[in-house]
């Protein structure tokens, strides 16, 4: 098994505009379900697999994350001041300004079974991203990986020759892949004149032809992303009960 990752980066700068009607007072990562926020849960699960250092990229209502980090050890905050006009790759680039090591990259608004982290960390490949079977959750990102390596991603299934599974939002990146994604981001900004680049469908796919990104499929993985009120309801009612492992931990 390969578990030499010592740092996680959690992307948490977004505004979550589609959730404002039901959660208008906090960032998505600080949504609380049964007394635990989404980010606090990820931090707990990361520590359980030996990752003690976390960098959280914040933007929208950053002060709430400052209060969160003040009560936890091993958490560094990085601010994407331009969170309203940039994409997720800009947030990752901000984190990489001060990181030069392999890392585990997570999105802040996901709930997942603990085995999701193990599946990615146990891969022998230095770069890997987690896929699940179909969830029918809505707003899925489909991954085309015909040879077990990422080739393309899209929210439109018809745009792809086929799909191995759904992108989950947990990705293992080597320092070399991180550098390549930063280069792809710089090229994107030069070409387009803005920084609205997605880290997964844009940057990760852009480097996939030069850096092998393993697609790690866990067909029966229980997980959910929270982008809108319908997804929040799905997570609370159907996902969280199958993922809440606090009663089994000391």
Structure, explained:
This protein is α/β, with parallel strands linked by helices. The chain has one domain: Spore Coat Polysaccharide Biosynthesis Protein SpsA, Chain A (Alpha-Beta Complex), CATH 3.90.550. It is about 30% helix and about 25% strand. The strands form three sheets. Strands 1, 4, 5, 6, 8, 9, 10, 11 and 12 form a nine-stranded mixed beta sheet that branches. A two-stranded antiparallel ribbon has the order 2-3. Helix 3 packs across helix 5, helix 3 packs across helix 6 and helix 5 crosses helix 6. The mean pLDDT is about 95.
**Main sheet specs:** 9 strands, mixed
CATH topology: Spore Coat Polysaccharide Biosynthesis Protein SpsA, Chain A
> What is the mean pLDDT?
93
Specify the oligomeric state.
Answer: single chain
Question: Low-confidence spans: pLDDT under 50, at least 5 residues?
Answer: none
What's the CATH class label?
Alpha Beta
Give the percentage of residues in beta strands.
Answer: 15-25%
Order of helices and strands: EEEHEHEHEEHEEEEHHEEH
